[in-house]
Amino acid sequence: MRDPLSVLTDAFTSFLFGKVETTRLPVRTSTGQAQAVYLPTAAPGLGDSGVIIGREVYSGKGYIYDPFQLYGQQLPAPHWLVLGESGNGKSALEKTYVLRQLRFRDRQVVVLDAQGEDGVGEWNLIAQELGITPIRLDPMAALDMGIRLNPLDPAITTTGQLALLRTIIEVAMGHGLDERSGFALKVAHAYVNETIVDRQPVLTDIVEQLRHPEPESAEAMNVAIDDVRAWGLDVALVLDRLVDGDLRGMFDGPTTVGIDLDAPLIVFDLSHIDRNSIAMPILMAIVGVWLEHTWIRPDRKKRIFLVEEAWHIINSPFVAQLFQRLLKFGRRLGLSFVAVVHHLSDVVDGAAAKEAAAILKMASTRTIYAQKADEARATGRVLGLPRWAVEIIPTLTPGIAVWDVNGNVQVVKHLVTETERPLVFTDRAMTESSAELADDALHAAELEAEERAAAFVEHHLGDSESTVA
Question: Residue 113 and residue 123: Cα distance in Å, rounded?
Fold first, then answer.
């Protein structure tokens, strides 16, 4: 029974201000029924066809992504940029994404593996599990009959060979070829291709022809033979590095027999190459053109080209131009280019800023892991991210990233199944997972929910071939 003072107060208030608001009794109900009263809201997803990445953090729903399914509908281009500091889960995302894509019969992946431990690349475990032998480019091993890629392989068109030779030279010299040097290279290449028919032409043949040009080459342009020799001297010195310098053995012989370009996964192991040397962009150029002319074919396969340490590509104007052409050409034939970069400032402030901007513009999907506040703001400006996304990037924990898929921005928790875990978490990647597990240990309920979600992912992957139309 209400006390007299409360009754008197309510009567006085009602007299002054009118009838007081009706008191409503609390409602007791189940969570299943309450969802009709308090409707949850979440950003729209990307559809239900493709591979599962994990779950959207705020809604808890599954996050599914596939550039080939979204292309032409929600994506203007199937290319993907992955950003973030070391130790936040980029490696785990790349590997699980490839493993899940390979469950579809019409997928093929090439990985340029620039990281490594214990003398092998980071993708070695996955290659072994799939019965794949990595293409290990190693100058020391090449001297002992290791893997070779021939820039003059007949599988590459004559035009492609000359373009590749020019790119190699321009990368090594740091500037473009002038007309006279370009002419000397062109006539040497033409003569070698015309006269050597009983075997694969090799770089040694080009170097020899540059040093000793044929008189006919000079006569055709009405110049002295000594002039043609002088024009080709610098070109010969650069190519000599691939023949008798620190890169010898890898490119100065016929292409190694047995490289399977029809395998579902092709791994180029570059872990034995100094990542900070001029050798890395030269390698990128050679592999890029070689793949363009031997791997990408109009056979209705969906191909993924994943490049670790991709700033080696985007930071060199000549290699960036080459890959920009590859991206434009490959898009028509079902190619998705995945570039993995630690910091966007590595490329947008580099020597190839113009080329970098063009490549970044073609990447309609951007995944950003944790970065420092200054780097996050710079990334947000370049990529046009919303303010809320920029503000949370420095606070992201390992395994969580901001995904921007052509303007559809969500925060996604990447999930790894128990089957994938031994293949994904190498020694270096274990550092990433340990930080994540330490955080989950403080949230036991969250860990249990993630394990249930991961079990769902693994079960769903069993039916993945029927998921994609």
Answer: 7
**Chain position carrying tokens 């409360």:** 6
Task: Quickly count: other Cβ atoms within 10 Å of residue 435's Cβ.
Answer: 16
Q: Of 114, 137, 134, whose CA–CA distance to 125 is shortest?
A: 134
Residue ranges in 144-278 assigned as alpha helix (H): 158-173, 179-195, 203-211, 215-221, 225-231, 233-244
Question: Which of 237, 243, 246, 150 is CA-nearest to residue 185?
Answer: 237
Burial class (CB in 10 A: 0-12, 13-18, 19+), 16: exposed
β 62-65/400-405 pair status: unpaired
Q: What is the pLDDT of residue 449?
A: 47
Provide the residue type at 78 as one letter.
Answer: P
State residue 432's pLDDT score. 46
The answer to whether residues 256 and 148 touch, using CB atoms and an 8 Å cutoff, is yes
**What is the DSSP-derived secondary structure letter of residue 120?**
E
Give pLDDT, residue 316.
Answer: 75
pLDDT recorded at residue 330? 72
**C-alpha span between 371 and 386 (Å, rounded):** 16
Cα–Cα distances in Å, from 262 out to 109, 210, 438?
10, 36, 42
CA–CA separation, 64 and 251 (whole Å): 41
Note the residue count of the chain: 469
Q: What is the pLDDT of residue 1?
A: 57
Question: Residues near 134 by Cβ (< 8 Å), separated by ≥ 6?
Answer: 113, 120, 121, 123, 124, 127, 267, 268, 269
Q: Residue 442: what pLDDT?
A: 36
Cβ pair 412, 53 in contact under 8 A: yes
**What's the pTM?**
0.76
Interatomic CA distance for residues 421 and 196, integer angstroms = 51
3-class secondary structure, 252:
coil
Nearest-angstrom CA–CA distance, 299 and 177: 36
Q: Which of 91, 43, 68, 85 is nearest to 414 (CA)?
A: 91
User: Distance between terminal CA atoms of the chain?
Assistant: 67
Q: How far is CA 214 from CA 159, 182, 220, 240, in A?
A: 21, 16, 11, 19
What's residue 188's pLDDT? 92
Tokens of 429: 């990647």
Joined tokens for residue 444: 């036991």
Binned average pLDDT, 10 residues per bin, the chain of 469 residues: 64 55 64 62 73 91 91 86 89 94 91 78 90 82 70 87 87 85 92 91 92 83 86 89 75 82 87 75 80 80 87 74 78 86 75 76 92 92 92 94 94 93 68 43 45 51 42
Helix %, strand %, coil % for the chain, to 5? Answer: 45, 15, 40
Q: Which residues contact 74 (CB under 8 A, 6 or more apart)?
A: 46, 47, 405, 406, 408
